[in-house]
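[09:14] KT: can someone run the structure on this one? pasting the chain below
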Amino acid sequence: MDSIVSYHDLKDIISHTFGISHQVLHIHAGLAIYLSCQVALGNRRASGIALSFVLVLETVNELLDFSFHGVFWSADTLQDYVSTLMWPSILYGVSRLRRQMWRAESMRRKRMRKTFALLHAGPAARSMAAG
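[09:31] RB: done, structure tokens below
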């Protein structure tokens, strides 16, 4: 129980030292954990492992809050999850979308190069590629 009180006190100290609310602390913590995990894993984009790590740590945080307060506040817990996971989820989604767009563009360019190569190769090469 002593470590739970110390953890809660540490969150209060950080919040008061930087003059930020606990919700803003959740936003910064979620983003810092996500980016740190990506760096540690060596991932440049869209790391599902990093996003999962943020989710696990937020769940541990909420369990510690529950142990400290002895009460489960569903509205506060939901707000904490949203605050913590919002930016990491957005970064993950944007990175996945950009990766899909890059792959589609890469495939389109590859098809175009192949088509142009066949057009410039002449009729004999086109008949060989078709059959």
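[09:33] KT: thanks! DSSP finds five helices and no strands in the chain.
[09:34] RB: yep, looked fine to me
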